Structure formats: structure tokens, C-alpha cells
């Protein structure tokens, strides 16, 4: 309590109004709450100056919609003294609503139901605009200095069309009556809309005395602090002190520093209520107004408490926000020598402007209070406008308490929302897609999709989960393909963000994967074992199509060549190993699955025993374990770390180290025998001897040498000390006798071309040859090795061998006379030798010859042996034969003939100079002349025939063939000059008409039937015409005996063309010759008795 405060509230109010008995109104609020459609509970609040007259009939309200008007009357609900006094101060408003009782402020609340469904008010229910519900009373306080006076008018606007059951915002703070001069003023209405949660906006308005009637200010609503040249309407609410007049349009917070200490003014704040229509467009659905009188006075020596900021916060819908609201109340420092007053203790409260939030006083015994605000805005609560609440701090100054109210805004940001859709492509491939509603999504979407196991632990192993676009265990695409290689339940997690709002949402879907090719290593994922251990990695594979194949990898990329089984053996693992081992399995359909484990080894090591310990016979083996090892146990039960062994064996020892790794080693103890040399007493017939002790590591001879072998040439005793590979040593001695006997020498190996060689012994010893001879010399004439053994008087033998080569003289296998059949040069060829020289001067193995004659050759082989040989060469020409070009032939037989020769061999088996053929095909012949020379030739013959015989029909003066194509016409067997068509005209001719048809191969058919025109014609003779020889080679004799005297002879080929010929006619006979090639020909003979035709086969 501040004892320095002696000024009373009465003094403060008296400063604001010199006389107020007839004037008593200090402000007005109107609010309403919907209780049913078009039915509202209305609350009318008047603020009364207790020094004025009492209020009567203050519940009267008017209604207006356009020109429609009406009235309602509310009932007094309560009267409350709201004078800002401390608990021990006396109010001037007692008794209540009594004229001129004293200084104070009363709050008069009237309430009632306004039902637009009622008959009296039903005309307002169809109002197309907003219904105006107003209250007015005379008069304002006469002490107002800024202009407003007379009637105080206030109203609310209700839009029954857009919101037939809307509740207006409720004011949670009372109107202020006083403000301290030259101190910052913070005031809010504390307007809340906890029923409809509509958006609110705030603005300053003019005081009114009636509907659409204002009572203007003389200037500005309040004289505010402006430093320097600054002036209205400039404002800066964040300055210290605040500059100008500022009303926050979102929170309704009024911030001003009043500077006219004698000013009494009216502040009007309008609250507009907004709601989105079905298209999301904000619409005004109502408006409320607070009209309040404000007296600016010089306050007692007390600093008002302050609610500290920050005053604006952001939170994502669905997230919790918590922050502390702190307070400050600086102690007023009076001028000396006045003592410093005690500090105030403040109270902190809030208006519950956000109903679901909590506001907790953390330490209610402290002087300065701190409130803890916490709220979790639900999904769907995001709004462009912030949610607001007010916090009011009040000190315990007396008699007048000081208050300060600040508005806090919490802006709810839209949460990023998506629908997670999973589409199965195959047993192991799925499409994960985020589907967002673009009409409601705010910001720019970004994605982060991962896969969790059934316990919601992230799976980062790409052997199990791999997204297609990133080849990783995560993706940032809104839609991606993921391969999952395990048969179990997974949780797909998608985190979507909406930059720059940055309110990410996390969404899940559950995926059951089964029937996927799966291989699992039957080993822990991450294992730490002792170095030196061996493990077998076995696998279990399920859902494989056909026999699966396996491949193992080390550290992901190192292919373990040859490791293609379902298990992997890792033997004797080294220290500090840190490797991963991956198995990749592929089934017969090409599906792939893999699993991976990590194996690490400790930094342990064993005693590093050797595999084998050895010593020499007579020595011992000493084994010792390092002092780091414990729990030692030898195979014989000893627990000592130091052991000595004198016998061979395989003892074992077990022990452990500080890593708790256990070891067991089996040792191999070897007792090596002493080395044994090869030295023996010996005698030699040689001039020297090589002594060898055997193979050892080192040697020491008594002659000072250290080689494995030594050469000696004198008789004596020889000793050696040897050391073997095991380090064992031994000594030995031998007596050696050297005779130095004489050696036999047969000389160098020898060779010659033919003949013989004599071999002889050069020593005085007896001898034995390998031929069996015992003479001192032998003569040899064949190639071979010849050896001799000689023996002296000491029994010493000497041996020698010589190689003798007696080469065969080279020769040819030519006959004395050589015959060739050739039309070109021939080759006379020698056997293969090294050197050649022909009598023609040629030096090659073969010589080309064009003429017959005697030819000789000098030749030498690779042994240097040479000779000369010769032969007489005859060269005969090849017989000339030619069957001609391949041919196609019209007919049924053909004669193939050649000039006479020695012998013939046709491919059809004939052996004469000619052959007759009647089928198509290849025909060949081989002809051999008197010299035995042969030639051959082949010809292809194709027989064509025309089996289409024309049938002639007489049509009027024409003869028509049944066939189309080329025809040859005959009249009495004589070719006519008619065109080669299938129709001819008779044209008065008399006789027998016939025709033949020629096909595309040029073959002539048999003769058609005849068409006989008998009138005036003679009959052709049918006697046979003799033509021979047939076949022929271009000459025939024609015999027409009994057919008449030959007048003319004509020759046609198979195409009906005349063939040039020579002929000799003698009565009934004729000789016909021609040079045309092989083929079928027609001979037409005209006699004095008729015309005749015969077929002739010509063979060339």
C-alpha cells in the first residue's frame, strides 16, 4: 500500500466535472446472444456517473430496418459499482442509483428477449439489410471538453439474412472513466466471440446523438503525445512513450499517451463482425459499438503496472503453444527527502478470450505475477485473423488502483494436409502418393517420405526399402515408387510442409507386405565378437520362384568371388574388423532381394603360440604365456604360465583375456633327431673323389672347407661337423683311398657319307667292346654308339663311348621315262633335299617343263650328302571334247555325240561316242585317248513339250482355235501365210486346214484336227514320206516314192521359221542339207500328187 497517496477519488472526479447533477451518462455498450433462430437475448449496459441523477426507464430500445421501426423494453438486470478503488476505500455510489451520492461509476445492465418470430417484430424478419437495435438517453456529462454533448446514442447491427442466429462479441472489460495524464494508456474492450468464433475488426468512430447523427469533435478525439513536428494522424504505438492515437484493427487495443491533463473526452470503438460465405468470401454480419467517457487527470504519485510483451505469437494448428505473460510495476521515486514507498503487489487476470486455452498464475505469492498461457488450437482453426485475449494487471494502490490491459494475438497457421495413397504394383513395388486439395492448401508443398517398421523405427537400410527417384531410403517427391523387400507390416510416413507457412503435417498409412522374395541372414544385424572367431552366416529365403541363386558381397561393393551358396563362412576373423556382409538372392523370374549384417571384432589377441615347437634330442622346449592372460589350464592339469617339455607330443592350453575372450591352443612339440652323415670309408680308381655328407644347413670339414661336397685327390682320413635345418649337429669321419687309374679315350664322335670307320683302344689295359669284340680295334660301317670297357691291374675300369653316323647317300624314285597329260607346262618334282641344281639351271625342288626331253638334277641333303639323277619326260596333249552350252529343247529325245576316240564314259552309263537322252538333267562324259590322257565335259539339257493341242472350229468364213497365243496354220499340210493368231479367214481357199500351237517355251504342239473345205479341192495324200537318217547331223535323204515327183522341199524350225538349206531333187528323191544347230525341224515336201510333212531331229 502506498501511504504517500492522499488524494481521493472524489478529488479526481471533481477535477473532471465541476457539476454533473443533471448530466450522468459516461458510456454505453450493447451486446446480444442468439437463443434460437431470429431470437436473441439483448444486453444493454449504461455507465453512470454517481454524482448525477438516478437512471429511470433506461431499458427502452428502438428497432429499425429501412423505414420499418419498432420498440422493445428491456428489464434492469443488475447495478454494479465499478469504481477503481482499493478494497479499503469508500465508494461514492452508495446507495446505488441515487442522485448525487458521490464520486463513483455504476454499471447498469438491462436484459430482455428480442424475438423476430413474434407477431410484433415479424416484419423485421424479412429485412434485406441489417436490423438496427439502438438505445439513446439524455444526457452526456456536461464536463466533456472535446465536443460531444447532449443525447448519447448507441446501437448494434444484426444481419438476419446472412446470420439468422448469430451472437455478437461480448465485452470482457468495462469502460474506463479515467486516464492518467502523461502516462501511457493501454485499453481493450476484451471483445470475444466464443460462440460463433467469428472474425472481429476494430475502428474508431464518431460519437452519435441519434441514428445517422453524429456529435463531432472539436478536433481530435484526445490530445496525444507528439514530439517535435509530428502531428495527428501519425502514430507509433511501440515508441516509449507511445506517439499519437493508435487503435489496433485486429485486437481493438487502444494505445495513447494523453497530454491534456484537464481534458474530458469520448472514445467510440466500433467492432465489426465477419464470417465467410459459402465461397470463402468474408461478409459483414453485424457490428457493435462501445461509447465511453474518458477524463484525463493528473494521477497520484503511482506508476501504473504494465503487462509485458511480446504481444503477438504464431502457432500451427494442432500444435501446442505456451508462453509466459509477465508484469512490471516500477516503484514511484519521490523527490528527497521523502522516503521510498513500498512496492505494489499486482494481480494478473485474463478475459478467457480463447475458451479452450488455459491461463495459470505460476507463483501467486510473488509481488509481480506471471501468467502461463497454453493452447493447442484444433485442426481446422487456422484463420487469416489472429485469435486474441486480453491480460489485465492491477496494482494495490489506494485509494485508486491502477490497471493496464494488453491484448495478445495468436495467429493460427494452416497445417499442411495431405491424403497418403498407396498403390500396389507388385508384391514388392508400391506407389506412394501425396494427394493434396489445391483449393484449400496454403503455401508451397514439400515432401519427405520414409518407411518405418511396425514399432515406428525408421528403416534406413536400402536392402529393405529403396525409393526409385533417390535410390535411397527416403524421397522428397510427392509421388514415388518404393521397393520393399521384407514380408511384414510397415508404416509409411509422409511429412508435408507448406513453406513459407512452415506448418508441417505428418501422416501415416499401414502397409502389409507379403509374398515378396525375401532372404534373411540368420545372424544379428550388428555383432561384436572376439578376433580369431569363425562364424557361419546362414540365410533363410522365402517366396522364391524356382531355385534361387546367391552372391555375397563385402562392404556393399566388394564381390566375394566364388561365394555363391546360401551360407558364408568367415574364418579366423582378424582384430578390429568392421565389415558388412551382404547376400543378394535372385530367383528364376529375375526378382532380387538382399540382406546385410555388420560384424565387428574386438582388439583382442591370443598368446601367439607357434604352430610347431622343436628342439634337438637331449634338449627341452620351454613355453610361456603372457602375464595378461588368466584362467590358465594345461592338458596335464597344470595352471602355470611357464612349462618345459622334453618329449614329443601335442599338449593343449586354454586361457582368457581382459576382453573375456577365451582361447584354446593345441601345440605340436617335436624332438628332432641328430643329423646322420653319408660318409663311409671308400676306394676310387679316379684321380679324385667327391665326398658328400648329405644335405644339411651347414658344414665344417677338417680340410677347412664349408661346402656340402668337397673334391679330394689324395688318400687319407676326412672328418666333418654338420648342422641340419633344425639346428641339430653331429660329427663323422671316413678313410678314402685314391688309385688314379689311366682312362681310355675313343676320341670325338664322327660321321661320313657311306663307307666304314676304324675305332682303337689307346691304353695298355685289357678291353671289351659292346660289339663283343676283345681286340684293341674294330671297324664299323653302320650308324650307332660304340663303347669300350678297359680293366687295369688294380681292377680299375675305364669306359668310353663314341657315336658314329654313316649317312645314306640320297636318291630319287623317278622312272627312266615319265609321261604327263597336259596342254600347259608340267612340273617335274624332286624329293625334299637342302640343295637342288637342274640341267635347266633351276635351283628349286620342282622345274616347269614345256617340251619333252632328258632332264637331270644334282641334289644334296641336310647331312651334306649329294648325288645326281635323270629321267626322260614325255608331254601329251589332252583330248578336246565339248558338249556345247546348256540348252532347253522342245521334244522328247536328243542325241549327244562326239568325235571318235579311244574310250568313252557317259554319266548315264553309255560307252559309245554318242548317247540318246529323253529326260532333263545334267549329262557328262569322260574321254580317254591312246596316250591314256582324259578330258571331261558336262551339259544341262531341259526337255520342254507342248501338250495343248488346238481344237479347230469353223465359224462362218473363219476357223477358230480353242487356244490363245501363237499358232502356225497349214492348208493341205503346207504352211500358210496367215498371221500367227488363233483365228484365220478361209477366204475362198479349198482344202484341209490344220494348225499347231506354240507355247511360251517355243514348243510346237501336235497337229490339230482338220477343217476340210471340200468344194473344188483335191484330197491330200496320206501316204508316208520317208526321211532318213533321223536323228541326223544336218543332212537327210527324202524318199517320196509312190508319192509322186518332188516339186519343192521346204525346211521349218520348231518356231515355224524357214531354215536356210541346200537341196538336190532327183525325181521322187531329194537330199537336204543345213547348218542350223540341234533341234526339231519340219520338212514339207510338195509332189505332183500332194504336200507332205515330216519331223526331223537334228543333233550337232
How would you describe this structure to a colleague?
- With 1100 residues, the protein is an all-beta fold.
- Strands 1, 2, 3, 4, 5, 6, 7, 8, 10, 13, 18 and 19 form a twelve-stranded mixed sheet that branches. It has a five-stranded mixed sheet with strand order 36-42-41-38-39, with no helix packed on it.
- The relative contact order is 0.04.
- It has one helix and 87 strands.
Topology:
Blueprint: H1 9-16, E1 25-36, E2 39-49, E3 60-65, E4 68-73, E5 75-81, E6 105-115, E7 131-138, E8 151-158, E9 170-171, E10 178-180, E11 185-187, E12 191-192, E13 199-205, E14 208-210, E15 213-214, E16 246-247, E17 254-256, E18 264-276, E19 282-297, E20 306-307, E21 312-316, E22 321-328, E23 347-350, E24 358-361, E25 370-375, E26 387-394, E27 403-413, E28 419-424, E29 429-435, E30 444-452, E31 465-467, E32 479-484, E33 489-499, E34 505-512, E35 518-521, E36 526-529, E37 535-542, E38 549-554, E39 558-559, E40 567-570, E41 578-586, E42 592-601, E43 612-616, E44 621-624, E45 630-634, E46 642-645, E47 652-656, E48 662-666, E49 668-672, E50 682-684, E51 689-692, E52 698-701, E53 709-712, E54 716-723, E55 729-738, E56 750-753, E57 757-760, E58 766-769, E59 777-780, E60 784-791, E61 797-807, E62 817-821, E63 826-829, E64 835-838, E65 846-849, E66 853-860, E67 866-876, E68 887-890, E69 894-897, E70 903-906, E71 914-917, E72 921-928, E73 934-944, E74 952-955, E75 958-961, E76 966-971, E77 974-975, E78 983-985, E79 991-998, ...
Amino acid at each position: 500500500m502506498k501511504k504517500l497517496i492522499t488524494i481521493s477519488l472524489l478529488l479526481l472526479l471533481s477535477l473532471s466535472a465541476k457539476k454533473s447533477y443533471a448530466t450522468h451518462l459516461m458510456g454505453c455498450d450493447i451486446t446480444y446472444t442468439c437463443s434460437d433462430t431470429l431470437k436473441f437475448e439483448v444486453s444493454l449496459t449504461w455507465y453512470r456517473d454517481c454524482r448525477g441523477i438516478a437512471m429511470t426507464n433506461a431499458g427502452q430500445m428502438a428497432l429499425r430496418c429501412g423505414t420499418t421501426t419498432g420498440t422493445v423494453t428491456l428489464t434492469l438486470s443488475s447495478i454494479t459499482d465499478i469504481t477503481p478503488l482499493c478494497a479499503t476505500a469508500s465508494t461514492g455510489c452508495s446507495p446505488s442509483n441515487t442522485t448525487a451520492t458521490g464520486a463513483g461509476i455504476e454499471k447498469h445492465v438491462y436484459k430482455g428477449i428480442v424475438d423476430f418470430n413474434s407477431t410484433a417484430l415479424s416484419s423485421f424478419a424479412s429485412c434485406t439489410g441489417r436490423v438496427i437495435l439502438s438505445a439513446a438517453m439524455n444526457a452526456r456529462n456536461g464536463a466533456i471538453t472535446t465536443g460531444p454533448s447532449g443525447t448519447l446514442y448507441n446501437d448494434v447491427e444484426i444481419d438476419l439474412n446472412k446470420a439468422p442466429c448469430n451472437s455478437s462479441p461480448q465485452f470482457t472489460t468495462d469502460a474506463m472513466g479515467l486516464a492518467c495524464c502523461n502516462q501511457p494508456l493501454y485499453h481493450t474492450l476484451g471483445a470475444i466471440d466464443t460462440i460463433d468464433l467469428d472474425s472481429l475488426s476494430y475502428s474508431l468512430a464518431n460519437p452519435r446523438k441519434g441514428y445517422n447523427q453524429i456529435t463531432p469533435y472539436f478536433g481530435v478525439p484526445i490530445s496525444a503525445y507528439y514530439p517535435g513536428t509530428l502531428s495527428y494522424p501519425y502514430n507509433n504505438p511501440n515508441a516509449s512513450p507511445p506517439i499519437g492515437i493508435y487503435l489496433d484493427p485486429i485486437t481493438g487495443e487502444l494505445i495513447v499517451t494523453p497530454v491534456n491533463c484537464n481534458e474530458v473526452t469520448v472514445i467510440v470503438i466500433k467492432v465489426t463482425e465477419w464470417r465467410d460465405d459459402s465461397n470463402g468470401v468474408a461478409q459483414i454480419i453485424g457490428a457493435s459499438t462501445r461509447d465511453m467517457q474518458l477524463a484525463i487527470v493528473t494521477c497520484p504519485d503511482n506508476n501504473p503496472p504494465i503487462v509485458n510483451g511480446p504481444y503477438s505469437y504464431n502457432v500451427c494448428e494442432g500444435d501446442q503453444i505456451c508462453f509466459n505473460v509477465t508484469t512490471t510495476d516500477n516503484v514511484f521515486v519521490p523527490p528527497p527527502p521523502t522516503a521510498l514507498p513500498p512496492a505494489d503487489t499486482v494481480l494478473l487476470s485474463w478475459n478467457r478470450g480463447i475458451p479452450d486455452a488455459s491461463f495459470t498464475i505460476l507463483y501467486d505469492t510473488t509481488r509481480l505475477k506471471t501468467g502461463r498461457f497454453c493452447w493447442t488450437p484444433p485442426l481446422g482453426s487456422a484463420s487469416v485473423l489472429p485469435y486474441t485475449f486480453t491480460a489485465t494487471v492491477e496494482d494495490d494502490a489506494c485509494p485508486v488502483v491502477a490497471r493496464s490491459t494488453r491484448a495478445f494475438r495468436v495467429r493460427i497457421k494452416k497445417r499442411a494436409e495431405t491424403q497418403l495413397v498407396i498403390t500396389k504394383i507388385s508384391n514388392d513395388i508400391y506407389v506412394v502418393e501425396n494427394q493434396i486439395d489445391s483449393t484449400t492448401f496454403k503455401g508451397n508443398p514439400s515432401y519427405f517420405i520414409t518407411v518405418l517398421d511396425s514399432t515406428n523405427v525408421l528403416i534406413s537400410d536400402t536392402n529393405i526399402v529403396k525409393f526409385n527417384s533417390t535410390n535411397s531410403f527416403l524421397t522428397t517427391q510427392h509421388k514415388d515408387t518404393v521397393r520393399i523387400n521384407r514380408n511384414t507390416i510397415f508404416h509409411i510416413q509422409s511429412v508435408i510442409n507448406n513453406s513459407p507457412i512452415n506448418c508441417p503435417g505428418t501422416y501415416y498409412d499401414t502397409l502389409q507386405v507379403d509374398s515378396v522374395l525375401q532372404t534373411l541372414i540368420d545372424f544379428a544385424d550388428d555383432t561384436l565378437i572376439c578376433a580369431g572367431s569363425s562364424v557361419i552366416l546362414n540365410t533363410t529365403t522365402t517366396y522364391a520362384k524356382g531355385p534361387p541363386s546367391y552372391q555375397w558381397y563385402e562392404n556393399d561393393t566388394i564381390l566375394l568371388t566364388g561365394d555363391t551358396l546360401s551360407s558364408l563362412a568367415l574364418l579366423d576373423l582378424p582384430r578390429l574388423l568392421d565389415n558388412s556382409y551382404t547376400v543378394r538372392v535372385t530367383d528364376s523370374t529375375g526378382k532380387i532381394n538382399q540382406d546385410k549384417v555388420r560384424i565387428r571384432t574386438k582388439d583382442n589377441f591370443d598368446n601367439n603360440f607357434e604352430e610347431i615347437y622343436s628342439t634337438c634330442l637331449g634338449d627341452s622346449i620351454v613355453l610361456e604365456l603372457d602375464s595378461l592372460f588368466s584362467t590358465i589350464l594345461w592338458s596335464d592339469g597344470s595352471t602355470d604360465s611357464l612349462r618345459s617339455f622334453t618329449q614329443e607330443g601335442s599338449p593343449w592350453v586354454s586361457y582368457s583375456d581382459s576382453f573375456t575372450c577365451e582361447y584354446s591352443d593345441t601345440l605340436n612339440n617335436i624332438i628332432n633327431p641328430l643329423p646322420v652323415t653319408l660318409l663311409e670309408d671308400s676306394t676310387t680308381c679316379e684321380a679324385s673323389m667327391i665326398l658328400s655328407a648329405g644335405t644339411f644347413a651347414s658344414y665344417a670339414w677338417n680340410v677347412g672347407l664349408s661346402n656340402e661336397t668337397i673334391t679330394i685327390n689324395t688318400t687319407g682320413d676326412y672328418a666333418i661337423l654338420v648342422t641340419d635345418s633344425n639346428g641339430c649337429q653331429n660329427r663323422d669321419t671316413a678313410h678314402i683311398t685314391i688309385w688314379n687309374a689311366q682312362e681310355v679315350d675313343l676320341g670325338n664322335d664322327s660321321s661320313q657319307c657311306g663307307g666304314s670307320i676304324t675305332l682303337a683302344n689307346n691304353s695298355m689295359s685289357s678291353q671289351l667292346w659292346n660289339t663283343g669284340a676283345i681286340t684293341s680295334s674294330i671297324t664299323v660301317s653302320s650308324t650307332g654308339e660304340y663303347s669300350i670297357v678297359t680293366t687295369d691291374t688294380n681292377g680299375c675300369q675305364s669306359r668310353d663311348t663314341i657315336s658314329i653316323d654313316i649317312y645314306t647317300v640320297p636318291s630319287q624314285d623317278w622312272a627312266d621315262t615319265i609321261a604327263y597329260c597336259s596342254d600347259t607346262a608340267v612340273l617335274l618334282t624332286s624329293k625334299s633335299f637342302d640343295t637342288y641344281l637342274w640341267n635347266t639351271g633351276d635351283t628349286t625342288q620342282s622345274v616347269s617343263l614345256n617340251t619333252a626331253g632328258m632332264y637331270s638334277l644334282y641334289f644334296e641333303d641336310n647331312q651334306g650328302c649329294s648325288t645326281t639323277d635323270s629321267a626322260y619326260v614325255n608331254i601329251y596333249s589332252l583330248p578336246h571334247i565339248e558338249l556345247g552350252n546348256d540348252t532347253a529343247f522342245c521334244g522328247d529325245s536328243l542325241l549327244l555325240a562326239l568325235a571318235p576316240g579311244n574310250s568313252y564314259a557317259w554319266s548315264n552309263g553309255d560307252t559309245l561316242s554318242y548317247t540318246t537322252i529323253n529326260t532333263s538333267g545334267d549329262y557328262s562324259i569322260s574321254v580317254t585317248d591312246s596316250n591314256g590322257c582324259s578330258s571331261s565335259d558336262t551339259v544341262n539339257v531341259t526337255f520342254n513339250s507342248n501338250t495343248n493341242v488346238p481344237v479347230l472350229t469353223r465359224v462362218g468364213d473363219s476357223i477358230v482355235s480353242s487356244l490363245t497365243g501363237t499358232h502356225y496354220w497349214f492348208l493341205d499340210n503346207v504352211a500358210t501365210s496367215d498371221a500367227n493368231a488363233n483365228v484365220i479367214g478361209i477366204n475362198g481357199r479349198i482344202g484341209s486346214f490344220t494348225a499347231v500351237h506354240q507355247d511360251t517355251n517355243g514348243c510346237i504342239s501336235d497337229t490339230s484336227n482338220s477343217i476340210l473345205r471340200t468344194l473344188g479341192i483335191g484330197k491330200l495324200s496320206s501316204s508316208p514320206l520317208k526321211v532318213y537318217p533321223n536323228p541326223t547331223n544336218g543332212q537327210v535323204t527324202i524318199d517320196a516314192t509312190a508319192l509322186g515327183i518332188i516339186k519343192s522341199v521346204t525346211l521349218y524350225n520348231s518356231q515355224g521359221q524357214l531354215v536356210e538349206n541346200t537341196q538336190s531333187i532327183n525325181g521322187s528323191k531329194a537330199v537336204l542339207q543345213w547348218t542350223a544347230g540341234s533341234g526339231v525341224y519340219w520338212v514339207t515336201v510338195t509332189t505332183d500328187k500332194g504336200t507332205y510333212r515330216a519331223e526331223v531331229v537334228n543333233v550337232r
